[in-house]
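Chapter review: from sequence to fold.
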Amino acid sequence: MNSRCDYTALPYNPPLYTVIETEVFQWYATDIWRDGEREAFIVWLATNPLSGDVIPGSGGLRKVRWSRAGMGKRGGARVIYYNVLDD
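The token string follows.
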């Protein structure tokens, strides 16, 4: 009997969520990030919707820090967001 596996494993693809950017977010984001940086944040948030710390007493708002090119997290942005995850 051959001990090798005769099938290909299916890769795990986590669900992607829709991120809706408000006009206020877009306005601030253009001031802080280049388009590629903003898009990278949106993709990251779509794949990690439960990231960041829940703000106590906010009803579920979360805050996350995101770095800017050449600035690190301390010089980056603090983003407050709310997610609605349907089951």
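Two observations follow directly from the output. The mean pLDDT is 81. The chain is about 25% helix and 20% strand.
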